[in-house]
């Protein structure tokens, strides 16, 4: 008989608590994270297989084209995109006249206002009135016009600031806007500079954007591959997963069957959320980095770490940096400068955002229901509630839940109203 | 115009990478853990609601009783439990005779062997031959008998070690076994001491167990509440969630429809795994702590942190500490002492475990298929593979997957064979 592991007489029990008893003080649950990932993958693999067995392969690339085109001889969306150049050129022309003094500031301001008002109303009118415009084509065109609107607004503001600065001869401040670097006002008022800004992945104009030294081919190709792969995945998952659930939700929604509606909502929440995540990566990482690399645009901060958001406010400040920067620079800070309080200015930003969300959904669907507007405005009390009562991981979980549940709720509402408006009328 | 946040001319862009680009060096994804939890809860809330809508409320407490009793006038399981006292008393009687020298060591060993051989074969024979014994009742009784078998084996071993030690007068080693503390061999050979060990939540006998100073009433009541709650939950979830999936799996299994079988397997994996987790908590935390508190049994280490297992071996060494301790003390180390290699001894432990798994499943089902045996023996190559090729979180994920997928696979196999054997024969 030897001592150590071979010892027969070793003490076998000693007084100690179970790990899961609070008295044990144990708190290492790192394995639980892996458990979550494994369960998530398995759950969704099962759902994917179940879906495939029930509905077969529904992915159909031809159908995607038909979403943009009702009539192959009428391309209203493409025509609108070509027309958009008119607004760009009007903005550039106006700035040139202002820089030469041919337009006085009030006249220039008026021309800009008219130009931008038409930019919002004219495509909306076309989308509403041209019968061959599809909802998807309409949303796409209005999205492009909205981006252009924000860009030209920034263009007008920055050029005005440049004139103000040269007027007051505030050389110290002028540095950042123009003259220490390559291009000085009004040397920036060229077609080339204007179109670089139009295509650059930012909404905030600067005379001298930071530029990367060269195009990294492997980076460009990887982003291109991601773009192509994820757009396929988006279309495929929508056709295979979203559409069947939405179609099967119509009956419970019509009947206002509450438990079945909740079940459909939760069932829709998962694919909707995954599609949104894929869309986020596709648009804010792959596509924007691809464009930036191609244009040697240096600033790649298109998003920050919104996945760690512990407050709703943090989420909205970090998930879409181009829009956040624009709102801060051209809307929030100007409001502050005019003496509005932070509270009012913040609400105004959410109001503007709510307006554009509604604009981009209601006009293409030709249906005004204010669900998107309400959803955005509901962020204000939600932000207050989460910021006031929830901290740390609970706040983070609340942000995730509002994302996962809020979006499909709005989607179901619009789809239901669209269905009732179009298909029930036909049935009657 | 002031500097700071109000400054119109501030630089708006600077050269930087996107966070998700590998070049950014960013790696804080803490929010993703919360995302996993939220998605998991939502996914399962939906599944729960869907299940309730499809099947209605299936929970039925009366049915539970019928699992144990076919015929209310025949209680074979209860009778077997009463009979088990005979084996306990035979073991105690044999040890007393040995301590007095009335039995020589070989005679005592032979009596113990016969006693324990009958302990395994007699209840198995009753379960196989008595028609009113249900599979659940049978499994329950065989489980109790297996636990008793392991306990009495340990009892025999420890008392033998005590005699060996008093023979060689190795006082230093004897300390831990008996004499420095309260009870000394053969003073431990009492009915009271024997039954304390039979009910204590351990399989390893010691002459002086560590004792907690007093019964904490609030701790006891909390564990009692958990026991009652989780047993309800286990029965409810089994009736509401497991049984419908198993029933709907019979057709695909009969037809050997591979994609539908995989879908059913994944569908079964989630409730099966959750039930196993609840069972783990119910048995190893609530019930064992309850018993220990009631008996003032000090050593509450019934499990270690198996959820962080990065190897299969670590999992088997840590999820069930009473069995692990028994195997180490009464099987693995004795084998090492007899000169077997670690490799052979470890394989022998898995072989023993596989035997008891098979015994506890096949006999109550009256059906010998070796699925449980194969499942346990498959742990050996799996342990080798995971230990050899997977590290850290990947190893942990592999352990989880083997748990989540492996169990329902075996469950489906047994249920399928049981169904084919009993219900298809009836249909023919």
TrEMBL record, chains A, B:
In this protein, the active site sits at 357
GO cellular component: a single term: endoplasmic reticulum membrane
Which is an annotated GO molecular function term of this record?
diacylglycerol O-acyltransferase activity
Query: Keywords of this protein's UniProt record, alphabetized?
Result: Acyltransferase, Endoplasmic reticulum, Membrane, Transferase, Transmembrane, Transmembrane helix
Q: Which domain of life is it from?
A: Eukaryota
Q: How does it sit in the membrane?
A: Multi-pass membrane protein
The protein's matches in InterPro entries, at most eight in alphabetical order, are given as: Diacylglycerol_acylTrfase1, MBOAT_fam, Oat_ACAT_DAG_ARE
Residues crossing the lipid bilayer are: 28-45, 75-94, 106-130, 136-153, 224-246, 266-284, 339-356, 368-390, 397-415
Q: In which pathway does it act?
A: Lipid metabolism; glycerolipid metabolism
Give the GO terms filed under biological process for this record.
triglyceride biosynthetic process
Q: Where in the cell is it found?
A: Endoplasmic reticulum membrane
* Main location per the UniProt record: endoplasmic reticulum
Its catalytic activity?
Answer: 2,3-di-(9Z)-octadecenoyl-sn-glycerol + (9Z)-octadecenoyl-CoA = 1,2,3-tri-(9Z-octadecenoyl)-glycerol + CoA; hexadecane-1,2-diol + 2 hexadecanoyl-CoA = 1,2-O,O-dihexadecanoyl-1,2-hexadecanediol + 2 CoA; hexadecane-1,2-diol + hexadecanoyl-CoA = 2-hydroxyhexadecyl hexadecanoate + CoA; 1-O-(9Z-octadecenyl)-glycerol + (9Z)-octadecenoyl-CoA = 1-O-(9Z-octadecyl)-3-(9Z-octadecenoyl)-glycerol + CoA
Record family assignment? Belongs to the membrane-bound acyltransferase family. Sterol o-acyltransferase subfamily.
- Whom does it interact with, and what assembly results? Homodimer or homotetramer; both forms have similar enzymatic activities.
- What's the protein called, per UniProt? O-acyltransferase
């Amino acid at each position: 008989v030897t001592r150590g592991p071979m010892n027969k007489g070793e003490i076998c029990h000693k007084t100690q608590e179970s790990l899961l008893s609070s008295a044990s003080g144990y708190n290492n649950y790192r394995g639980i994270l892996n458990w979550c990932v494994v369960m998530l993958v398995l759950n969704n693999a099962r759902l994917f297989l179940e879906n495939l067995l029930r509905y077969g392969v529904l992915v159909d690339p031809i159908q995607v084209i038909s979403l943009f085109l009702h009539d192959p001889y009428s391309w209203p969306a493409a025509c609108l995109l070509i027309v958009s150049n008119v607004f760009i050129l009007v903005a550039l022309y106006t700035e040139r006249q202002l820089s030469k003094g041919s337009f006085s500031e009030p006249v220039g301001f008026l021309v800009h206002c008219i130009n931008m008002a038409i930019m919002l109303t004219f495509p909306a009118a076309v989308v509403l009135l041209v019968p061959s415009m599809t909802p998807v084509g309409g949303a796409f065109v209005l999205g492009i016009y909205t981006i252009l609107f924000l860009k030209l607004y920034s263009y007008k503001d920055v050029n005005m600031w440049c004139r103000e600065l040269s007027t007051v001869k505030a050389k110290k401040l002028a540095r950042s806007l123009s003259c220490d670097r390559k291009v000085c006002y009004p040397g920036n008022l060229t077609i080339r500079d204007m179109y670089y800004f139009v295509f650059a992945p930012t909404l905030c104009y600067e005379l001298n954007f930071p530029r990367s030294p060269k195009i990294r081919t492997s980076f460009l190709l990887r982003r291109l591959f991601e773009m192509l792969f994820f757009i396929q995945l988006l279309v495929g998952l929508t056709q295979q997963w979203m559409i069947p659930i939405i179609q099967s939700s119509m009956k419970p929604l019509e009947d206002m069957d509450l438990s079945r509606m909740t079940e459909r909502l939760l069932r829709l929440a998962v694919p909707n959320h995954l599609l949104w995540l894929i869309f986020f990566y596709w648009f804010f990482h792959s596509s924007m980095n691809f464009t930036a690399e191609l244009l040697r645009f240096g600033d790649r901060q298109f998003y920050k770490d919104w996945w760690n958001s512990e407050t709703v406010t943090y989420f909205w400040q970090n998930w879409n940096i181009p829009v956040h920067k624009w709102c801060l620079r051209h809307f929030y800070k100007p409001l502050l400068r005019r003496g509005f309080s932070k509270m009012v200015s913040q609400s105004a930003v959410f109001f503007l955002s709510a307006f554009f969300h509604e604009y981009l959904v209601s006009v293409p669907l030709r249906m005004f229901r204010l669900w998107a507007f309400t959803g955005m405005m509901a962020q204000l009390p939600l932000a207050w509630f989460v910021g006031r009562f929830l901290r740390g991981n609970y706040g983070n979980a609340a942000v995730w839940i509002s994302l996962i549940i809020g979006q499909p709720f709005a989607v179901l509402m619009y789809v239901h109203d669209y269905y009732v408006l179009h298909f029930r009328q036909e049935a009657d």
